[in-house]
Structures
1.
Amino acid sequence: MLWARELIARNAPVRNRPTPSPRECLLDKAKAAYLGLAIGDALGATVEFLTPNEIRHQIGIHSDITGGGWLRLKAGQVTDDTTMSLALGKSILTQGSVDAKAAAEAFDAWMRGKPVDIGNTVRRNLIQFRKTGNPAAPASEHDAGNGAAMRLLPIALACYGQPPETTIFSSRAQAHVTHNNALSDAACETLILMVQDLMSGHEAIDVERERAATLVQTPGFAYDKKRCDNPSGYIVDTIQAVFQSFFATENFEDCLMEVVNRGGDADTTGAIAGMLAGACYGMDSIPKRWLKALDEATSQKCTDQALALMTLAGH
Ligand code: MN
Ligand code: MN
């Protein structure tokens, strides 16, 4: 009798989690990219504008979402990087497509809502938009900040599966509202294609290394291999710190700790690195303590929008 029971137990099917379908994997990564962006923003904001030395002195290793920083944030609160992304995403969902004018109006409404922080280039060109109604800022070699790159995730999601030309057109539509600059464009387009690649599960991180290498060959974009500490808001600096952290680590947590402890524009490097790492490693890789710490309403908005944008893209 005992023998029979043992035999049955041994032959019982193992109750593993069912293997997720390709669509479930894709949506998981879209969600992880959006939550990664918000988590990187909330984590990095605490140490924004500190140098690595100041971080070591004041905190040690910065590894928890605690709020504070020069913006005196509540723990889990996010900044312009996330809230501008959400404003852009909402405009795309309302419009049913990426539209420069709708994006400009959404950013303008966002600015009227007195955000906790706002970049100089963003403010200047949104005030210009109010005067002219033209959703494309004049081209300027000085507008090479990271303000367009920090909020591009909704484009990557809404354009998922579309030809690269369509994606690039949409990228410029949103970016040029405030940053009409060749270096910013090159960075935005590379980041969007990387997010899309990573979401589709291209195992080979080498594909992304090549994309990164191509960007770095863009005239004006070259940077040396030297470690970029204290990255500024200049897009080349930002990308250097993000790529160095993303390609030198193998999971979400290490990637974000690596980038935010470099200080400087840490909420933005955190947001961009978090977006890439989320798209690459998926929801399971995001530490629970960070998911829990993120402001609940923000977390819900990011999740809802990630799924809605993927539905709009036909997935
Ligand atoms: Mn910010
Ligand atoms: Mn910032």
2.
Amino acid sequence: MGKIILSGDRPTGRLHVGHYAGSLKHRVQLQSDSSYEKIFIMIADVQALTDNADNPEKVRQNIIEVALDYLACGLDPDRCTLFVQSQIPELAELTVYYMNLVTVSRLQRNPTVKSEIRMRNFEASIPVGFFCYPISQASDITAFKATTVPVGDDQEPMIEQAREIVRKFNSTYGDVLVEPDILLPDNKACMRLPGIDGKAKMSKSLGNCIYLSEEADDIRRKVMSMYTDPNHIKISDPGSLEGNTVFTYLDAFCRDEHFAQFLPEYRNLDELKEHYQRGGLGDMKVKKFLNNVLQEELEPIRTRRKELQKDIPAVYEILRRGSEKARETAAQTLSEVRAAMKINYFDDMELIRSQSRKYAGQEDQQ
Ligand code: TRP
């Protein structure tokens, strides 16, 4: 049997190059890999609401932004199912059943939840929905019997939690669910692309992102302002690669062909790094090179996005049809889940017959 992919993003803003390098580019490539039979890509609006409950308009506005970014990157509705989480009520139902299989202390130990609670200053009062979102994410994955979840490494604890839920469910109720594996990008630099300021993670609230839809001039401006080695002052100074954002981005995006095209004095990134560390190579030259590399990667995405923006109803229609299709798959899994959990009363003729037999004798006695 072919493998099944499920992945997704929260619609809280436009997608940036961190999303792209960490997972989106990989998902687009997987569309051409014949070992994957089905690919489901979900806009996780229900999850976005777990920490934006007071701002539904933000989530609503960003559904189309994420959909445009997906399509612009090359996710193809003929080869993958693009859908919106809230339109699949089976996911909420499954979450309720899974809640019986997870302890509060297990959720408290989830490292991603822990750090997000800190980030959002939720320590004093965590919304229950937010606290439980790893359970909801397990539903997203297992409702489609996904074998493979292509995401960044920050999602590892989520996948582990999903695997535990699957094992617990299957051992309690019988083998219905599939244990998913995480699929990380091969390129380590892609895994957690820092913000342009060198801060750990690209995030909209820190204002340190390069968005996929960004105009060429803005990309250039952002690249030129990127954090490098603060001790590399004169061109002749030896430079350090450690925490040097420009080189991390080059690790993520540049290929040997880019050197022939934009910087023929070097054959590859190793030669460029070597020169930088030795001294005599200025930041400006490296940044100009990175700008060329990024422009080449992002230009086709931006152009396609502008094309797609001309027919917004068509994009909503792709999501509507995808959601319909996704719902069929989730509904099939839910009917197996309900049968395994013995809550399929009205479909179970044997139950009705056996209850009839139980009371049949009593009438005779009266
Ligand atoms: N938690 C993911 C993120 O923040 C989004 C997401 C929701 C997801 N459900 C998922 C990812 C299921 C993979 C599988 O980016």
